[in-house]
Amino acid sequence: MAMQQWAMIYILVSFIAANLPWLSRKRFVFGSRNPKKTLPWYLGEWFAMYVLMGLIGMGLERFLVGHNHAQGWEFYVIALCMFAVFAIPGFIWRFNIVPMLRRS
Fold it and tell me: Does pTM surpass 0.70?
């Protein structure tokens, strides 16, 4: 596969990973069901997914290029902001749409 195809697959998987914590009531998607999952718990899972996707991205870069490029803190802040934007649909679903559906 070409590098552009790998990049698009990685972006799609990152989008799915950013939304998984908000769409699942289970702890870390595979754990026990917890109906009292609070916002800090959702944020912790979301940040863990960010770290996991970062590690997958580093592994993918090493696989495709042969080494990892040095990155400054700015790169990781921008990646965190992009991951936050990816998570907006799941966040809106969990905290806006689901409560509205329960009321009606």
Answer: yes
Q: Between vectors from CA 14 to CA 96 and to CA 5, what angle results, nearest 5°?
A: 135
Residue 53: CB atoms within 10 A of its CB come to: 20
Residue 34 is predicted with a pLDDT of 67
Across the range 46-67, mean pLDDT stands at 93
C-beta separation of 104 from 74 below 8 A: no
Nearest to 85 by CA among 9, 23, 3, 11: 11
Burial class of residue 61, CB neighbours in 10 A (0-12, 13-18, 19+): middle
| Structure confidence by residue, pLDDT tens digits, 5-27 | 999 999 999 999 999 999 888 77
Crossing angle of the two packed helices 39-65 and 73-86, in degrees rounded to 10:
120
- Residue 9 CA from chain centroid, whole number: 14
